[in-house]
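Colleagues,

For the teaching module next term, I've prepared a clean inverse folding example: a structure given as tokens, and then the sequence designed for it. I'd like students to try predicting residues themselves before seeing the answer, so please don't circulate the second half yet.
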């Protein structure tokens, strides 16, 4: 989660009269923050990622001012003052590279050293979180007085245009920036699939920005009262709009006035299908949301009247709170993207009222909680396996048909397939965890041996999830005798003595595998080893030496033995007090 470092003097100035850093440190956790450290004139606060508007000192001060004393006139202050008269033309060449761009102008921003540092810190926090390391959103902030509108957003060949990148000397073309500039080498991956690169230029062809890599030295921000031009480029319109609104709000908190920019998109996709012709940015408006007070009262556990709800919402930055029949409506600030449902408003009501205002209560019914038997069993098995010298592993539950069928020697077992899988390695949910542990051995084949791993794993059989105990042993001495001894020790520790039969599991060497069986129960078999079921018994576990063909495919040169146990069946039949 992002940690925001703030200068206490700057924070005090933004919060206004009566500010106390001690009160701030004790009260700011109420809105979802953790004070990491305080001292030396600075305070560091960590926020949850669902509130990107709090990733800068200005947003934190804005939220804290409302929490302490809501300003009923603030909605009028956080609004678009007028039209800047500036036009930005989007060329069709960027439509397949980085299609979305939004822009705004904030005039009269008071830039001191603290403000400049805060602007840069907010940019980077938004780039990392909301921007997915600049792939989804990238922000450019420029001194408007150094350039001449109108602006153009177009694509260029790697050597087709040159400019002085921020913090460097001389003219660099785009290719050199990607290969030699520290920001270029860090973010070149965002453009690696493209042969042309996006650039923003002014009326004289001078470069403002090479998004999402670096701005030009031409528009470097300096201290003093400044008019600022903001561009936000990306691949998602909602994310671009939110980032632009957050930055604009930050600059308005520094004394600026917000003005719109007309962005003209070409008549090609994706602009046509998105209804994007000429748009006035930023899309900076307070939206309306509705809440049923009964829904809030039900979730929070006590009756709330309109006055309580209004007071709480005002403290959380909402405005124009009105009653319409059975519903309450309110205006949501343009920098709040986390208000998606009534539940989000209820959460803010709880924060605004203060969690301490909700007293605890005892349960109305007498119940006694206890650990589920399968959980107890899993814990006991973990202790046994650790005692046998095995290390516990945790692998993901996704696998693929090749591993689950070919590697395991199965033919027609039904597997739950994933629609539109991200990779060919993860196309299904596993029915066995043995392939997962074998691949883990393969990835660690450079490690010292022996390697003995186990996992209490989740698998899918049909449409049901169940647990299995899976273990593998890679060792020059790994054999049928060794794995049978481990199976016997495991069952002995569980006070069990089931019937041993030859195993027909295809992942093992024929004649070097076995299965421990238990008497059939009521109903049909629904466990993970259907090929081992007999007319009189169900398989509790199977074990054996893994086939050499499997080891060769995994580049494992040492023998491997494996075991898998059905914990659901074990939980059903065991009477042992664990």
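(Answer key — instructors only)
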């Amino acid at each position: 989660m992002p940690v925001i470092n703030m200068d206490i003097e700057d924070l005090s100035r933004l919060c206004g009269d009566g500010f106390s850093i001690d009160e701030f440190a004790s009260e700011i956790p109420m809105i979802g923050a953790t004070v990491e450290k305080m001292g030396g004139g600075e305070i560091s606060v960590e926020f949850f990622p669902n509130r990107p508007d709090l990733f800068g000192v200005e947003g934190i001060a804005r939220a804290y001012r409302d929490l302490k004393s809501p300003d009923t006139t603030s909605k009028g202050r956080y609004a678009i003052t007028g039209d800047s008269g500036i036009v930005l033309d989007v060329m069709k060449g960027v439509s397949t590279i980085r299609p979305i761009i939004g822009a705004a102008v904030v005039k009269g921003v008071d830039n001191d050293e603290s403000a400049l540092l805060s602007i840069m810190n907010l940019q980077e926090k938004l780039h990392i979180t909301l921007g997915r390391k600049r792939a989804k959103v990238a922000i450019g902030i420029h001194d408007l007085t150094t350039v001449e509108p109108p602006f153009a957003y177009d694509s260029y060949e790697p050597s087709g245009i040159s400019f002085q990148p921020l913090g460097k000397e001389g003219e660099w073309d785009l290719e050199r920036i990607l290969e030699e500039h520290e920001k270029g080498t860090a973010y070149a991956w965002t453009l690696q699939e493209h042969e042309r690169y996006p650039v923003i230029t002014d009326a004289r062809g001078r470069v403002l920005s090479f998004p999402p890599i670096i701005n030009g030295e031409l528009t470097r921000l300096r201290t003093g009262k400044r008019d600022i031009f903001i561009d936000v480029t990306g691949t998602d319109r909602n994310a671009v709009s939110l980032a632009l609104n957050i930055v604009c709000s930050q600059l308005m908190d520094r004394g600026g006035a917000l003005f719109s920019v007309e962005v003209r998109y070409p008549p090609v996709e994706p602009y046509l299908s998105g209804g994007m012709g000429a748009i006035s940015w930023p899309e900076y408006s307070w939206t309306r949301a509705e809440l049923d007070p009964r829904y809030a009262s039900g979730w929070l556990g006590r009756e709330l009247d309109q006055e309580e709800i209004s007071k709480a919402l005002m403290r959380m930055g909402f405005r124009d709170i009105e009653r319409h029949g059975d519903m309450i409506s309110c205006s949501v600030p343009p920098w709040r993207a986390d208000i998606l449902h009534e539940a989000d408003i209820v959460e803010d009501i709880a924060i605004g009222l203060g969690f301490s205002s909700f007293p605890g209560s005892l349960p109305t019914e007498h119940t006694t909680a206890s650990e589920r038997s399968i959980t107890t069993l899993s814990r006991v098995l973990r202790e046994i396996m650790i005692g046998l010298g095995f290390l516990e592993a945790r692998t993901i539950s996704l696998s693929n048909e090749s591993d689950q069928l070919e590697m395991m020697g199965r033919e027609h077992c039904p597997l739950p397939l994933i629609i539109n899988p991200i990779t060919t390695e993860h196309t299904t949910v596993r029915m066995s965890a043995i392939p997962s542990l074998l691949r883990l051995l393969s990835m660690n084949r450079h490690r010292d041996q022996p390697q003995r791993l186990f996992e209490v794993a989740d698998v899918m059989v049909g449409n049901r999830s169940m647990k299995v105990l899976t273990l593998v042993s890679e060792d020059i001495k790994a054999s049928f005798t060794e794995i049978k001894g481990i199976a016997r020790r495991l069952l002995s520790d569980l006070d069990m003595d089931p019937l041993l039969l030859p195993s027909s599991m295809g992942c093992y060497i024929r004649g070097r595998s076995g299965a421990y069986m238990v008497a059939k129960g009521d109903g049909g078999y629904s466990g993970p080893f259907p090929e081992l079921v007999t007319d009189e018994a169900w398989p509790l576990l199977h074990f054996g030496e893994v086939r050499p063909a499997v080891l060769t495919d995994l580049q494992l040169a040492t023998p491997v033995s494996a075991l898998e146990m059905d914990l659901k069946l074990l939980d059903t039949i065991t009477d042992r007090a664990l």
